[in-house]
Every structure is written in C-alpha cells, then in structure tokens.
Amino acid sequence: MTAKSAPGFPASRPRRLRRTPALRALVREDRLSVDDLIWPVFVCDGDNATQEIASMPGVIRRSVDLTVEAAAEAQAAGIRAICLFPYTDGTLKTDDCAEAWNPENLSNRATRAIKAAVPDIAIMTDVALDPYNAQGHDGILRDGVIVNDDSVAALVKMAMAQAEAGADILGPSDMMDGRIGAIRSALEDAGLCDVTIMSYAAKYASAFYGPFRDAVGASGALKGDKKTYQLDPLNADEGLRCVARDIAEGADMVMVKPGMPYLDLCAKVKDRFGVPTFAYQVSGEYAMIRAAAGNGWIDGEKAMMESLMAFRRAGCDGVLTYFAPEAARLIRAGWE
Ligand SMILES: NCC(=O)CCC(=O)O
C-alpha cells in the first residue's frame, strides 16, 4: 500500500520527516507507555529477605513483605500489573505437586498480602506445576510421560486456589491441552466469572528460559526437556492454532513467549485474532541485554527501550518484562 502510493525521488525524501525531534515525534507511529508493562517478580520465604539471582543481574527474590513494598513502588511508578513467581523450597516439591494448590503457598500468601495493601495493582499468577514438581516439569510425570488430563485436573485446582486468593489474571503457562476450557468452566461454576485468563498460548520450547529456572529453583529438578508440550521453534502455524484454541476455550488475553525471537508470531496473532496480545520478554532475553551492557558492549538503556518498543511495533498490547521498573522510570522521564 505505502509502496504503491509513494511518489518517487525527489518528490519523496523520507528524511524530511526525520530532520528534527519535533517532526519525528509528529509522525511517530506508536508509543511505549508504562500501561503496557507487566512486571514479573520472584517471591521467596522469610521476612525482610532478598536473594540475588546470579544469572539475572539486577533481579532479586523478595520475601512477601518486601514484595508488597515492591508492588506499592511499582504502582507509584505507574505500573498496572505484576506477575508473581514463587521460589519453592526443595522440600515442598513432590511428584503430585500438591503444594501448587495449597491456599497458603507462597504465591497465594503474596497475592493476599498485596491485595490487602495495594488493591489497585493487577496481580497475575503463574499456573504451571514446575515450581512444585519434584520432576521439574509443568505437568505430572508418570512412567516418563507427561500425562495431559491428570495435569489439567491439577492445574484447575491450582488456578482455583489462586483465584480464591484474589488473583486478577491467571496465567496458565503449562501448555497442556484443554486447560483453558477446564479452568474457565471451574471459575464459572465457582461464581468467579470475572477472573481473567491470559493464556500462554504460543509458548515455545526455548533455551531462553534458563535463568528463570534458576530464579524459581527449578533448574536442578528438571529431567529431560519440555518438547512434548511446548512448541517447536520452527512452527508458526501450530502456534496460531494454539492461540485460536485458547481464545475459543475462554482466554481473555493471549501471550507469545519468548518475545524477541518470536515477534513474527506476535504480529500474526494480533493481525489474525485482534485480541489483547502480550509477549513475554523472558529471562534469557533480559540476561543477554544485561550481560552485554555490563561488559560495555551495548548501551543497556537504549537496547532495553528499543527491545520494548519492538513489541509495540509488532502489535503487542503489552509486554511482561523484568525491565519494567527501569523502563517505567525512563518513560516517565520522557524517553524518546
Ligand atoms: N512461566 C513463566 C516462565 O517460564 C518465565 C520464563 C522466563 O522468564 O525465562
């Protein structure tokens, strides 16, 4: 369209509109706003406790009390939503993953505490069994096989405990078949019809999740890989079919994950379905930018902001990013 209607040189000199900051601002096609950011936070046990995560410099785990403080600070910075990830002690990991639906588990305690103190920030929770699974998988493993339907039954119990704790957005990240429909009907049956679901709909089997597994204490536990449930990085059509299915089953929002290597999927999802579309800029993407910046190889702030703008350009309504507090600060300071 643009190419067909564009006049040739010298009638068209696109650099005319790039000459000054004012002209560039006038014709800028999109904006990155603090409203677009969801901040993933890691929660650990203890009081007034923080723990560093070696593979994610600048990211820490916080005890529930400090997570509440961080949520209040995030809200003051304009961030609308945080996403909770618990670091689960090894002694609580079992083959049946029962800690996942304990109403008093770390994630549910954090949700209640944040809701009580910072009621306006949206809380997203992670629905997947891996933090609670002695086998490190997102589903239940039997005789070396991830069993789909029993995993879905466990995920429903987990999702319901999170919804009852006050989560605003459930984020099923497990990639089992049929979990969105099962969670949606359980919510309806329980009268929790306003709880939203952001489905990790197109989640790829990716090497970029490595630092996250350190952050939630799952790296040691995982045996094998997740290729029987997460998507093959070469499959775009299959990703789109999963998105279509999850929307049909009751997802309010969908996510593509990881983010930067899968921007093509983000654009296709938004174009094809027109639903609220999010990307997860995952731990490995964060770690790469931080590591390169830490070595002086790239300008960390510029690379971070450019990476986040790319999600908007690709059509995403928002992005889950560990950079959220830093990006919020720069956006509010008028970053261009
Ligand atoms: N279910 C959440 C994740 O797997 C996050 C991955 C990452 O940040 O690497």
Instruction: Output mean pLDDT.
Output: 96
CATH architecture: Alpha-Beta Barrel
Kindly estimate the percentage of residues that lie in beta strands according to DSSP.
Answer: 15-25%
Helix/sheet category: alpha/beta
CATH topology: TIM Barrel
- In what order do the strands lie side by side in the largest sheet? 1-4-5-8-9-10-11-12
Bound molecules: 5-azanyl-4-oxidanylidene-pentanoic acid
Radius of gyration: 20 Å
Distance from first to last alpha carbon: 28 Å
The H-level CATH homologous superfamily, spelled out, is Aldolase class I
In total, the number of domains comes to 1
What ranges have pLDDT less than 50 throughout 5 or more consecutive residues? none
Q: Per the principal axes of the C-alpha atoms, what is the gross shape?
A: globular
Work out the number of β strands.
12
Structure description:
- This protein has a single domain (32-332), classed as TIM Barrel (Alpha-Beta Barrel).
- Helix content is 39%, strand content 17%.
- It has 12 helices and 12 strands.
- An 8-stranded parallel β-barrel has the order 1-4-5-8-9-10-11-12, surrounded by 9 helices.
- The structure holds 5-azanyl-4-oxidanylidene-pentanoic acid (FVT).
- The site of 5-azanyl-4-oxidanylidene-pentanoic acid has 8 residues, from helix 10.
- Pathway: Porphyrin-containing compound metabolism; protoporphyrin-IX biosynthesis; coproporphyrinogen-III from 5-aminolevulinate: step 1/4.
How would you summarize this macromolecular structure in one to three sentences?
The radius of gyration is 20 Å and the shape is globular.
